[in-house]
């Protein structure tokens, strides 16, 4: 199938087998290898990317489902000369160890702050009428779909809080 979408701000047209996942399209067809294939079952979050600004496990989504949409991978967030604030905070707070989960963690963390700014509650949000609070419990719940085998969780939360201005 022919697929047209925008990846990291660049219009792309590809011919793909309709069974190709978004993750495999990114890694194998576009050579954007920042998003990782961890579990390939949507359980670890290493493949998290942003689609139309919302986080998504790219291993669970077929590429053809995203016709005309904008996909942002870790390669499209900041760069060598101008890191995204979340990337700088992860570096400052040592929010990674082996680094395998870091691209997905960063994409997720950026989306978490946008979700909270939009007032979207999580399962940990107690007052559904008020803006979600920037508590560790709230952030942990929102980031719970991204696993880190090295257990850098406290540092990841500290990085997110820094970017949020807390």
From TrEMBL:
Q: Which residues form the 2Fe-2S ferredoxin-type domain?
A: 1-77
Query: What would be one Pfam family of this protein?
Result: Fer2
Sample GO molecular function, one term: oxidoreductase activity, acting on the aldehyde or oxo group of donors
Q: Known InterPro entries for this protein?
A: 2Fe-2S-bd, 2Fe-2S-bd_dom_sf, 2Fe-2S_ferredoxin-like_sf, 2Fe-2S_ferredoxin-type, 2Fe2S_fd_BS, Aldehyde_Oxdr_Iron-Sulfur, Beta-grasp_dom_sf
Q: Mind listing the UniProt keywords for this protein, alphabetically?
A: 2Fe-2S, Iron, Iron-sulfur, Metal-binding, Oxidoreductase
Q: What PROSITE patterns does the record point to?
A: 2FE2S_FER_1, 2FE2S_FER_2
Q: What is the protein's name according to its record?
A: (2Fe-2S)-binding protein
């Amino acid at each position: 199938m022919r697929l047209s979408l925008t990846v990291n701000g660049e219009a792309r047209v590809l011919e793909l087998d309709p069974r190709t996942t978004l993750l495999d399209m990114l890694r194998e067809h576009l050579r954007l290898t920042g998003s990782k294939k961890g579990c390939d079952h949507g359980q670890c979050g290493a493949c998290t990317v942003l689609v139309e600004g919302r986080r998504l496990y790219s291993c669970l989504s077929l590429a053809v489902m995203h016709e005309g949409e904008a996909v942002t991978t870790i390669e499209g967030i900041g760069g060598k000369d101008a890191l995204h604030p979340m990337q700088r905070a992860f570096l400052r707070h040592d929010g990674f160890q082996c680094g395998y989960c870091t691209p997905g963690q960063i994409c997720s963390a950026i989306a978490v702050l946008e979700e909270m700014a939009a007032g979207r509650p999580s399962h940990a949000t107690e007052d559904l009428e008020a803006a979600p609070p920037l508590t560790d419990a709230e952030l942990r719940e929102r980031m719970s779909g991204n696993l880190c085998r090295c257990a850098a969780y406290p540092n990841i939360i500290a990085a997110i809080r820094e970017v949020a201005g807390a």
